[in-house]
Write a structure and sequence with these properties.
6 helices, 4 strands, alpha/beta, 171 residues
Length: 171
């Protein structure tokens, strides 16, 4: 397969019913994960307090087959291979930064949540590993973390383990 790099984002258009005031919703969920295939509510709750923000954060997760994740990996990273998870952040340079809604007016979803980006997970790899772990891993990428150096890898793994533990999930 020949690979061409290209920008890619999952389509993000889903109305989510909301009840109560913004302040009440903010106390309940600081992260909203949009996914039709899996329930990530435990992960949503486990991310509470992991990053500072004055608004609800949102991300989209799509679980796909090996062929599609290979195509995405090829088109967006120039790597012609199946992978377990791909993250497509909407925001740059946000690692460790307090996220303020006013700083990202073009990155709000239709509910007024700050959209962090999209995550694609390979269904077969999720069956071999753990879908919640792959989602957690992808979320940390959306929040600006990486594992390119040993030091960064250690920081990211520590954060992943903390969130998975808070969610009562195992890797």
């Amino acid at each position: 397969h020949g690979c061409k790099r290209a920008d890619w984002r999952l389509s993000f258009a889903r109305a989510v019913p909301q009840t109560g005031t913004f302040e009440e919703r903010q106390k309940l969920i600081m992260l909203k994960i949009y996914c039709d295939q899996f329930d990530f509510s435990a992960l949503e709750k486990a991310f509470d307090g992991e990053t500072e923000s004055d608004c609800v954060l949102a991300a989209e997760i799509v679980v796909t087959d090996e062929e599609e994740i290979r195509r995405l990996n090829c088109e967006t990273r120039g790597v012609d291979a199946v992978t377990d998870v791909l993250s497509y952040p909407s925001l740059d340079n946000i690692r460790g930064v307090t996220l303020k809604k006013a700083d990202f007016p073009m990155d709000l979803d239709e509910e007024g949540n700050l959209f962090l980006g999209s995550i694609a997970i390979c269904k077969k790899r999720a069956e071999e590993q753990e879908v919640n772990y792959l989602a957690c891993h992808g979320m940390w990428h959306l929040l600006g973390y990486d594992h390119m150096t040993d030091g960064d890898k250690a920081i990211m793994r520590e954060r992943e383990e903390k969130v998975m533990s808070k969610a009562g999930l195992k890797r």
